[in-house]
Write a structure and sequence with these properties.
The chain has one helix at about 185-190, and strands at about 1-5, 25, 40-50, 50-60, 75-80, 85-90, 100-105, 115-125, 130-135, 150-160, 170-175, 180-185, 200-205, 210-220, 230-235, 250-255, 265-275, 285-295. The radius of gyration is 18 Å and the shape is globular. Strands 1, 2, 3, 4, 6, 7, 9, 14, 15, 16 and 18 form an eleven-stranded antiparallel beta sheet that branches. The chain is mostly beta strands. It has one helix and 18 strands. The two termini are about 20 Å apart. Mean pLDDT is about 85; it is low at about 1-40.
Length: about 300
Amino acid sequence: MLGLGELETVDRNRIQGTFITAGAVFIFTALQVSNTFAQEQTSDELVLDGKAVAIKERSISCDGKPDDFPDYINTERLVNCGSGKIVTFADYPNLERLLQFTIKPDDKKLFGGNRAELADTRISKNGEEAWYRISTLIPEDFPVNSQHRLVLAQWHELDQPGKPFHRPPLSHRLWNKEFAVELFNKQIIAKLGDEHDGQILYTAPELEPGVFHDYAYKIIWAPDDRGEIHAWHRKCDVLDPSECNSDWVEFIDYKGSTGYDNAAVQGYYFKFGLYTTTKFDTTFTAYHSAYSSGKTPADIGLMDPMFK
């Protein structure tokens, strides 16, 4: 379901896409990916609950279909056929499909880093309230003992033409197994510079593998103390997503600056997958599903009064 509001197009080569204001709602679940699978689909296995589950894969870049994604989803951050795949469970045809993202040490770098990402190229502006939801899965065979500083998802700024690059205001990061939610804004950069880590809003010793980590965010974008970030999390079974072994828990309650002045940025957009600018020596793979965004909690499927 797509609710299209007032549109605004921004021409920026750095993003390589079309931008529209947060008046539009993007609901993407893996079930909305193209149902037509051709001969290029291959079979593989994914370890879940300690057992190998048969899956089928199709490359987004090399075997994509016109109706795989809406036109405002940018796929140009997938550098080869293996960077991003649409995954379905062979023995569980009614399960939601996954999006698989893979980076390898010898991949071609893009925009200064190794990346495999999709971007929702619509922007939210300062003063707007926006809601986001995404599920993330780290496979059980993820090489946690190999050195890594990975970005799983990030809310990125769109700079004004001619203005310098800024650090992404909010991101999900995996640092040598530790999960962290990192914040940057103009005050943090003024204090710490842009070569250091930002303010850590949340951290956990690890991101438990083999389960869906379902995240919901309410963000009021603002360069001053009118900004807000509220985030909720729960864990769900991959093979039975209706079974969530934990209730929604609010894990971030932040009030303060969430970005940069209007003179510096046009707004903020969202992208997810895998990304790093640091050296690594092994292949990393992660999965995402059920991304959605909108202006209200109902837009992202949250009806409980706790979401407000």
